[in-house]
Amino acid sequence: MPYINTNPEKLFSPPPVLKGYLYGAKAAYAARDSGKLLALRLETNTSCNLRCRYCYAQSGEALAKFADFKTLCRVLSEAKELGARSAVIIGGGEPTLYPEFRELVAYIDSLKLVPMIFSNTLLITESLAAFLYEHNASVMGKLDSLRPEVQDYLAGGEGVFVGIKKGLSNLINAGFSEVEEPGILRLGVSFVSNKMNLGEIEKIWHFCRKNQIFPNMEILTPTGRANAELTDKFLTAEEIRSYKLKLLALDRKHYGYDWLPYTPITASGCLQHLYSFYINIKGDVRPCAPTKLDEHPALKVGGKYPYNVNQMSLKEIYASELFTYVRNIDKVLEGRCRACIHLNECIGCRGYAYSLGVNKGLGPLKALRTECQQCFKEGKRKGGKA
Predict the structure, then answer these.
(1) Phi and psi for 40 in degrees, rounded to 5?
(2) In Å, what is the CA distance from 87 to each residue of 29, 90, 112, 287?
(3) Among residues 117, 142, 237, which one has the least CA distance to residue 192?
(4) Which DSSP category does 299 fall into?
(5) Running along the chain, 386 residues long, what does each successive block of 10 average in pLDDT?
(6) SS3 for 334?
(7) pTM for the model
């Protein structure tokens, strides 16, 4: 049954969110319009104890790289001055392998920012879970499947399912699944949807909702290792449309939640480009992970990408012409996105649009504003084609 929005002017009532992870439309636009950041995303290390077959960063290689701790602290302090509320430690690899991981979490907490940790949870002991809880962190774990053989295969190692289950149990026992504020969760799990787990996505969704866990649905994309190891596991556009609408119906029927099904991240949307910076292991600043502006030759000066935290302050980068353009991307969107009635809460997946665009030879700014190809909302495309 197609989704019908009976009141386009009204923002949807969202389900619970994961503290410090993503921010809603009202907060995102308010931050943008007042010249503030809301979140910073940091790569800390490329080392990893898994070899996930879908890893876009291809982490886990023998040559490990680590971000300088003092530089991270300086950048976090600058982000705080720009109004940031949270710092997302996304690793690049497995963040708990970063030598100064606990010191970094403690420093983020000392700045009154929310430490939001991505982890496969294999190294989260009872002690570490307690430490994270005491330092106001929220955690995004991993749960690609409820079947051990599928989880182990996707993660590239035996016994991974057991390790994930133990780590999640330690987090739950530490109090992470208890709701302290209405609508705010402290524990989430990411699962990459593909043909191996498509049949159990609804079970994973129920597991999350019943246990007060934020379900972070990702879509397997042709990047990194997936290009070589999971070529037959990608979902079709119709499969993506179908499962999103099933999950919407499930949420409405069983949990009383309602959300816009067209947004990039299922049930939560994504407006990172309006309020967030992503800083990779080299210190290069991007709007988000897949929007790899630092790799485009057109944006380099003298062969180098200038928007680097070792060359410029965050304040200078924020005020630059390039990132001012990025934050105002909603004003120059093309195709169906340009006149969409949901523009007040969705700008499509800019990272996906950028990647497809540059692969077709478009310039970086042109690629960034093209219409979202993941959206299944009915409407006219350029040229009048539906």
Answers:
(1) -125, 135
(2) 19, 9, 10, 14
(3) 142
(4) G
(5) 46 82 95 97 94 79 85 98 97 92 98 98 98 98 96 94 97 95 95 94 96 91 79 89 94 93 89 97 94 95 97 98 98 94 92 89 96 79 36
(6) coil
(7) 0.91
